[in-house]
Amino acid sequence: MRIATWNVNSIRTRLDRVLAFLERSGTDVLAIQETKCREDQFPVEAFSAAGYEVAVSGYHQWNGVALVSRVGLEDVAASFASQPTFGKPGTDPRVEARALGATCGGVRVWSLYVPHGRTLTDPHYTYKLAWLEALRADAASWLAEDAAAQVALLGDWNVVPLDTDVWDASAFAGHTHVSEPERAAFAAFVDAGYTEVTREHLPAAHTYTYWDYQQLAFPRDKGLRIDFAYASPALRDRVTGVQIDRDERRGKGASDHVPVVLDLA
Predict the structure, then answer these.
(1) At a CB cut-off of 8 Å and minimum separation 6, what does 117 contact?
(2) CATH T-level assignment (fold) for domain 2-264
């Protein structure tokens, strides 16, 4: 079984590339982030024609997550139980379209788009830390209920865990993604019983998953590693390999992220 995660930065813009990736890679389940569309705008028919079931959470041109699967799609949840709300001043806070879970081929797969944080003094940063802690607590409870549960927490985590996960750590000093509270919130999933399997299988530096569109970041390899996969103990034992599909950052119409692919025994 092959599971992948990919921040596509607009599914309607990237549809042909995503369908081609699924066919070329033989991916069974794809967790998608930043769909940037309402649920009624998601191109369900195109995935159905390719043999995939679809679950979507999205309500405007920002955020949005989806799961597509050809090995089943059951017990869909449009958020995790403790997911915090967020809203601009003067608006009603709401649960954003940032987490979507479903059981696919016996694996509980979560497509996650962690809040960005914006700046260290922005309310969005506080929201980001609360969001990660709430997810950690819920994820820990899932294992407390069933230690043999196969759970995959996949997506764009918007955290750079190590200095080697960024082309120049000094360039990010004082900014989000590299702050100690964010890194601690990311690492806390290990204490909850999960293993970040992309690091386990691809430990080397310069295994970036994101390159900005500006200043020739990709040709200059000025990247970040921010797309990860935490696996429960039972699922970790099944992971036989991980790939970062760097080629998907090449060519016209590429997303600024690339797919991260997990192979399961």
Answers:
(1) 124, 125, 127, 128, 158, 176, 177, 182
(2) Deoxyribonuclease I; Chain A (3.60.10)
